[in-house]
What we know:
alpha/beta, TIM Barrel, 6-stranded parallel sheet, 12 strands, 13% strand, Polysacch_Deacetylase, Glyco_hydro/deAcase_b/a-brl
Amino acid sequence: MSVVPVPLSVDAGPSLSVVPVFLYHAVSHDAPPWLAPFTVSPRTFVEHLDMIADSGLQVIPLRQLVAALHGGPPVPPRSAVLTFDDGYADFASTVAPLLAARGLPATLYVTTGALRASGSGPFPSVQTLSWAQVGELDAAGVEIGGHTMTHPQLDTLPRASVREEVAGCKRQIEEALGHSVDAFAYPHGYSSRAVRAVVREAGWTSAAAIRAASAFSSEADDPLRFGRLMVRADTGRDQFALWTSGEGAPVAPFAESLRTRGWRAYRRARAMTGRPYRAIPA
Length: 282
């Protein structure tokens, strides 16, 4: 799950090409209370896919955007990307068939410590994918990315713990799938300069963030903290329509706000005193 309590900024100017990278968590009728604010119904998800198609957006693989951010060929005009965090079981049962029916690529960032029996790991009272299902999704063409091992707030951890979470996650996925993986996403959207350095050292070539709660990516974005638009239960049809038209959110890159820095300092202070801020109920 990704939680960033920072308000939206004003829209950036038109000088940057806007790339909406949509972020979903669960797509379900039956989410536990802690996950419900970040869950959309299957019907709503289908409506979103229809709106994306009707708007003229072309859904491209994340790798294509990342290549452009690293200086490769630019993405086609009116491109969009679909991403999913955490690794809930509904991705296999609900999301993947809907994407396959439309021929749409997507990236799924999995928290490896949650890929066990229902209810285990860092996500209470919700069914998650198994390693076998992750392998099947990978074989079907879904890009599998990493979302750490235990979904911590990386920017509050000692460097050694960050390295274990970031590199350990990569190692586990690559051993399970039998090939390298390149895409990472920060739990809760939280990162820092030091965390991003560890991510780069671990061999991840991209890392998804959440800038100002939601932001468009762009041709000038930072591949190690590119912006995403977080789709929530309360994301209305009008708001989603604005996003598909390239409006309604700031365009990354932009400087980290003082409020974001203050929020990080607060969470770090709590962690240091043994009273960590809990973004997900224990």
